Amino acid sequence: MRYLVPLGFLVFALILTAVPLMAANEYALRLFMLFLIYGLIAVGLNVLVGLTGLVSLGQAGLFALGSYTGAVLATRLGFDIVASCIGAAILSGAFGVLLAYPTVRVKGVYLAVVTIAFGIIVENVAIEWQSLTGGTTGLSSIPRPNVFGIKLSGFAFYAVLAVTLFVFTLLIHNLKISRYGRTMLAVSQSETASRALGINPTAMRTLAFVVASVTAGIAGTFYAFLNSYISPDIFTFSDSVRFLLMVILGGAGSTFGPVIGAYILTYLPEYLQQFQLWQNFAYGALLLLVMFVLPRGVLGTLRLAFDRWRPADPVPDVAEGLPVETTLRHDKQTWTAELVANALTVRFGGLSALSNVSLRVKGGEIHALIGPNGAGKSTFVNTISGFYQPDEGRCELDGVELTGRRSLEIARLGLARTFQNTELFGELSVLENVMVGYDQRLSYGLVHALLRTPRMQREEFECRRAAIGLLGFVGLSQYANEAARFLPFGLQRRLEIARALAGKPRLLLLDEPAAGLTTQEIDDLEAIVRKIAGLGISVLLIEHHVDLIMALADTVTVLDYGQVIASDAPAAIQNDPRVIEAYFGTPPERAETAA
Ligand SMILES: Nc1ncnc2c1ncn2[C@@H]1O[C@H](COP(=O)(O)OP(=O)(O)OP(=O)(O)O)[C@@H](O)[C@H]1O
């Protein structure tokens, strides 16, 4: 499998080199150059669509923005093509940040509407701002492309476009296989789990928008230089749809899919011209047919077929993994990780889910939080981990205030959690899920990711080794390459624990980890939690399973109707009349008689 991508790049380079030698005439070369420009837009848009799962229908707006910026810089200020591209990239990148902002609140179809509105605004500004854009007449006399005063011939300009597309495809492929690509995929699959691992979803989406905008902006400048003339009617909504289709048709998320999609959708209209009146109908019908037969796009479907007959990737060797002690061990002397919740109150409208709850998880202990259904246990976990904000009271981890902090900041302070309803990144492999958990410990930046520097490779290697070690720790080594959503439920719970541990937490919150497990799986879970505590990590265990609590907990706190009714050693809790009454709804004597 590994050799496929380098082979793809080799074939891509050969095609790009051979085309100008084979081009029958200037028109054929120009059409291919148009494909290269569209390819650049599609490759950038793929980061947004294929990795973060967002839909933009405003790419024509960014394309226009880049075109006008490049054209104005070249005609008014005499910039050459490189300087114009840089100017267009900066401006469209800034608009990418602006476009990413709404994703804090809106997603899916609402976000698509926002991007459509952006495209309409750009079109109208291009029409109305006549002094700068030439209004409906547009901008003409855009100079021939030149670099540092040297004019580029048709073939030289072709070479610039070809190299640009090749380099951007390579850079974006590098981004995809780095921690940034992995994290973007994770955010698209579970924003909640991402936040719990310390990932900032808004930052990831902003990065994706910036990449998609910068490439569209540069492509726009290239287009202005290629055409020598631009006007608002060149950049229409249907172009935005076409750019999105290029990604989907080629195969969203794949390295070369968008390039293939751009090729098909550049040449298809040319080919269909012979059908004259039927051209548009044939275009639509063909697209429908292709998407029906290849729902994952050309490359996505080929990949699926290829995956069926190729031998499965070998499971990583357990010996490759880092010992879990190395990945997780804390010094108990200096790393106490004490959680103190003080008089927490959380209300949902008129309902007090937590009333004045105080609780202390001592460093290194296993503290169980129990209570009947609806007692407020999950609300407590969600409040401690920053998913809810308390109405009153405060909590701190080793003296560091948690109240008022966002969930991702709390995760970065060393508090990891699992979820009552498992929140895995279903499309990622089991190994990748754990590697996403490790993400906050990686320090290489964007430039290292884009260039795949030795530092990036070294850190990724360490991350992979730690993840393999953690999979061994929870007994999931043989499933490393499986998609997480295919794991049986009991194993999904274990994977969530491994992923939470990957961030090297000081306190682990386990929200009903035994729910739905078999007796054997509960025994395994008991051993795992015991080992975790043995490594110096404090554990707050929310559970209904009495045997597990009695076997594991150093202290048990009982919640009922949002209030702490008891907190003591397990044996004392078992005989506490208030606890018996909370569970059985009757005083202890009568509960015994009933039993
Ligand atoms: N987001 C919310 N909005 C409104 N009410 C909520 C919300 N989350 C929890 N509640 C309510 O708060 C109370 C405590 O719920 P919570 O889920 O914390 O209990 P629990 O002890 O975890 O229960 P279970 O063991 O069934 O998971 C319940 O009455 C619940 O309906």
UniProtKB/TrEMBL annotation:
Compartmental location: Cell membrane
Species: Bradyrhizobium lablabi
Entry keyword set: ATP-binding, Cell membrane, Membrane, Nucleotide-binding, Transmembrane, Transmembrane helix, Transport
Example of a GO MF term: ATP binding
PANTHER family: HIGH-AFFINITY BRANCHED-CHAIN AMINO ACID TRANSPORT PROTEIN BRAE (PTHR30482:SF10), HIGH-AFFINITY BRANCHED-CHAIN AMINO ACID TRANSPORT SYSTEM PERMEASE (PTHR30482)
Domain ABC transporter span(s) in chain numbering: 339-586
Name of the protein described by the UniProt record: Amino acid/amide ABC transporter membrane protein 2, HAAT family /amino acid/amide ABC transporter ATP-binding protein 1, HAAT family
Keyword Membrane belongs to the record: yes
Cellular component per GO, a single term: plasma membrane
Chief place where the protein resides: membrane
Lineage: Bacteria, Pseudomonadati, Pseudomonadota, Alphaproteobacteria, Hyphomicrobiales
Bilayer-spanning residue ranges: 6-24, 31-57, 77-101, 108-127, 147-172, 207-226, 246-268, 280-299
Highest taxon, organism lineage: Bacteria
Role according to the record: Involved in beta-(1-->2)glucan export. Transmembrane domains (TMD) form a pore in the inner membrane and the ATP-binding domain (NBD) is responsible for energy generation.
CDD domains (alphabetical): ABC_Mj1267_LivG_branched (cd03219), TM_PBP1_LivM_like (cd06581)
Membrane topology type: Multi-pass membrane protein
